[in-house]
Hints:
Distance between the termini: 46 Å
Order of helices and strands: HHHHHHEHEEHEHEHEHEHEHEHHHEHHEE
Amino acid sequence: MSEIELVNLLALLKIDGVGDIVAKKLINHCGSAEKVFQAKYDFLKRIDGVGSVLLKKIKEKSVFEVAEKEMQFIKGQNISCCSYLDENYPDRLKQCIDGPVLLFSSGNINWNTRKVISIVGTRQVSSYGIDFCKKLIQDLAPLNPIIISGFAYGVDIVAHQAAMDNNLQTIGVLAHGLNQLYPKTHKKYCAKMEKNGGFLTEFWSTSNPEKENFVKRNRIVAGISEATIVIESAEKGGSLITAIMASDYNRDVFAVPGRTTDKYSQGCNNLIKTQRAHLLTSAADILYILNWELESKTENNGIQKQLFVSLDEIEQKIYDYLRQKGKTELDVIALECDFPVFRTSSYLINMELKGVIRPLPGKLFEAI
């Protein structure tokens, strides 16, 4: 995107009455933000949803003064920008009708991997929630996913820290501009996050972390990933809003169950009960539902795969069964090997991490 087009895009978004959906409609009809301002009155008038009041605002030039000021901030702080038409715009977010027209980012963000998950939850995370989050990300690390969260207190920052501890790319989606940081106490994590990941926002430098911005931020967290995971949540809260948005975007949602008497398990339990979310007990559930295949992160680092793999008695029984029967569904494996399904899932992921089996489309598994 050229600097001229970026200034025009900033100016377009600053017009009162032009949100993401209207901006996309105008650009799609005219070809670019610059051409929207160059288009004749009669042409713009024929666009569905563009009335005379909005047309007058489009012809006003005062928005360019604000756009130029923001452009100076972007250049001065070396901020990266991408529009929904750019190749480096997150693929899944392009599929969302209300996805941001323009994204600002800092750090070293790479969207090449297809495995992107969002992890959300309460700010009052329990020790159980912390341990579960850390273990989950540790178990998923061999698949090299990008971990998305909101950089808030509680589950969010635990997820970011666990991702960094496992050398995974992690991205914090902010509810304000990149000229500030909320909460300020998390500033100590910024430098490390920006080495492998960074920060993403749709908000200008003039935007503060106001209540309505967090709801808008949540749609990015929900839409940008393949799945959203809720670790702990009360009956109402921002993480539930994110989960419902993800479900509406036709993304998979996972929730960690908890005791019925725990305040911060109510939201997760309700998501599972109303079939808005898959029950999540381990990383194996994610691999099974999303049909993720294990990519050897160690091979990419030049480390040779083990020539001999040690299997315990149960793993050996499952492996021998798959060698004999070939491609088999999880439920059938559990039935034939006489193990509960949830335990079989755990064994299968361990065996996949050891490189002796692999998942296939249709929730099948086979021995390698």
